[in-house]
Amino acid sequence: MRLDGVTWQARFRDFTTEAWRLETLPAYNVPQEEEELRAFRAGERIDPHAHSNSYTEDLKRVRREGKLKGRVHIVTRPLSEYLRYEFMYYLPHVWAGEDIRIMDVTDRPNPLAGVTDYWMFDKREVVLMNYLPDGTQIDRTVFEGDISPYIEYQRIAIAESVPFEEYVKGIGA
Length: 173
Description:
Distance between the termini: 40 Å
Largest sheet: 7 strands, mixed
Helix content: 25-40%
Radius of gyration: 16 Å
Strand order of the largest sheet: 6-5-4-1-2-3-7
Number of strands: 7
Shape: globular
Order of helices and strands: HEHHEHEEEEHEH
């Protein structure tokens, strides 16, 4: 089953304990980010202490409700322009309550090589995020099989990654 619109948005409103994502690409081609990405290329930066938007406010709501939202992003250095842009927003997202972790596989084998992007909700439902090679999203589909491999992928991703703030201190970003 493909998900979009209100059906997709409901997943983030209705999960009861955890919404978690694995990100595997060095860049995502997201039309809604084009203006911000252009500003980033022109040298503009956000103030992470002052940044607030609907996403950070929703993260705060999630935490108030005792729920968890997190992700692991698999990266290699040098970081792509898109990742440098995205990292600019990760700090205010962490401060708003999202557990963002980085798995850097620059100098080691990727323990999740071949695993595609996905969201997992309450360890009961997996939604596969399908992309073209340039990061343009094709669709989102509910995975219909046994999700236990995805639960294991999450375990591996968390075990093999570090918290975002620790990562950026380590690379001097």
